[in-house]
Amino acid sequence: MSEMIFRGLMAALLAGAALGTAAMAGSIDGTATYRERIAVPPGAVLQVKLVDISRADAAAIELSGKRYALTGVPAEFSLDYDDALIKDNRSYAVEASILLDEQLLFTNDTVHPVLTRGGTSTVDMVLVKVSGPEEAQVLDNSKWQVSELAGALVNAEKKPEIAFSEEGQFGATGGCNRFVGTAQIGARTIDFPDNMAGTLMACPPEQDAVEQQFLNGLTRTTGYVVNGDLLALTDASGDTVMRLTRLP
What we know:
globular; single chain; 9-stranded antiparallel sheet; 15% helix; 19 strands; alpha+beta; 2 helices
């Protein structure tokens, strides 16, 4: 085979590979903003992620992520992903956060489904401000019921609940057993104890599964966001572990 023919074949193969790669590429376009009339701090970044939220018993799986230098809002973003990773029978969502020196300032407090199960490839997100230093005691004397775990709605007969008194003391129920302990709560951070005192009742299998998801979620929680009667517990990456609504 002559060198000219060999080069021609290689060029054709490389071109075909490039076309195949391009055909597999998808993108999600959107905007992120917040309601507060405050300027974006210099050096802030917008972080967006495409996550798989199909499994209710596990943390969301990140499929794609991107960061943008942020100068103002609303901010536009375009998040690329590999089509080969997307399955019609699974559920996906976009998560967004605004950070400054890795400190969480704003985050989404609702699920934004995309791509499958009626989702589209565009999303407009309104982020909420995380608790400020003056709100370090915002959880005192409040009671909450879990509405979402790992991005999935909780449909159990008895939903998990947690009630805070003061100085981090709390009582919780997974829908079957009851637990008590003391959490370390800061302006934006919360650390639940690894070992909580609790009852040891045998639970129906479905309720037991929800209870274990709830307890596992508490152990992964490192932060929180309060937005009126909504509470989001977040992990070290700023991703939502569970969402709760305030009870009377």
